[in-house]
Every structure is written in structure tokens, then in C-alpha cells.
Amino acid sequence: MGKSRSRRNRRLTKQLEVWRRRARWYGWPVLGLLVAIWASLRFSLLEPGPPNDPENLCEIFREHTVWYDYARQSRDKWGTPIATQMAFVYYESSFRSHARPPRSVLWGFIPWTRPTTAFGYAQALDPAWRDYLKANGGSWLTVRSDMEYALDFVGWYNRRSHDRLGIPLTAPRQLYLAYHEGRSGYASGSYRSKPALQSLASRVRARAFRYDNQLQQCEQEFQCWHWYQFWPFCSAES
Q1: Which residues form the Transglycosylase SLT domain (predicted)?
Q2: Are the beta carbons of 138 and 158 closer than 8 angstroms?
Q3: Which of 2, 84, 117, 186 fits a 20 to 30 Å CA distance from 20?
């Protein structure tokens, strides 16, 4: 009886050792695969597509209600109106989470480098994004393809333009010129020699005002803060 138990213990020990060796051999690759799958879901597949009706801010927020929450948080934190933030994103990325500038072409057919490092909803450049992360304690989870951080970046950048250049947060045209040219470029007036950019900034202003008018007609829909509230009986208070 004792010998039988001893043999079973030895077999169990050998089996455990085999599984330990297999775990050491396969463990890291499997873990890497799981991390890669999670990262793909976190940073790509789970990001919503562009809204079906980008011309109407009410419809945008009805389709992606959480975007209203993100824009409101950014407005309360930095001061840029919700409509202005969304107008920036409209013209920067057309609401595409992984938008990048198109590549240049070498010899007429070889895809080559991109003109800038702009990426994500807000088309934030690498240096500006690093400054944002440093100033706000961001981590590797703070990414430009997430609307929450993209809108917060827009609000943060505009706030710095307001503080350093005196641009009112209610002046979307001037804010966009500073956003596009950088604060030093705006201060030097580099945009004055770029009529196409000035025209674009005017379109940003017009869209911001249009979005704001639309939002006034529907914002209460997105302000049901308490569990007992439901549209159309919502309070504007948080």
C-alpha cells in the first residue's frame, strides 16, 4: 500500500515538473499574445467609428453620448466651449480615432514618410503630446486615439494659448490658428501668409458657432446625471 502511494507521488511529481518546464517555455509567448490582444482591443477595435451625421452635434452626441461627457469635463477643466472642441476634431480628423497625415510617395509609387507626427482625433503632434502628458501626469494608457484624452488635450492646449497669448476661449478662429501654427508661430503672425489656413480657421469658427446653436436645442438630453432622472425631465445641474 505504501509502495503504491509512493509510486503515485513520484508520477505526480514528474507530471508537475513537466508542466513547470512547459510553462517556462510557453508562458512568456502566451502572455505576450494575451497582452497584444488586450492592447489591440484597448487602443483600436474598441474605439467607435466616425458618427453617421457629423454635421449635427446633437446627432453626434446621441450616437456617442459619452463624447458629451468627455467634452463637458474638458470644458469644466480648461474652459474651451464644447462646440469649439468638437469643431476642432471635425476638421482635424473627421472623428477618426487613428487618423494620420497621408504618406508622401517616393518615385511616384513607393509609400514614404508622413509630413508630420500628428495622430488621433485631435491630430496632436508628438512634442505637444509629450508636453501634455508631462503637464498632466499621463501614462502609457493616455492615448491620442481615445476621445476623452483628445478633447482634454484640445482644452489644455487652448488654455495655454489663452494664458500665454491672451486669446479668448470664446474665439475659435484665433484658437485654431494658434493650435495649427503653434503659439510661437501665432505670435509671429506666420498664418498671415497662409490664406488657405485662414480660410480653414474661419470654417472652424463657423462650425463651432453652428454646433453651439445646435447644442442649445438638445443639451438637456445629455444632462441626466442622477439615476432617478430621465429625458425630458433632466436637470442642468451635475
Answers
A1: 49-218
A2: no
A3: 2
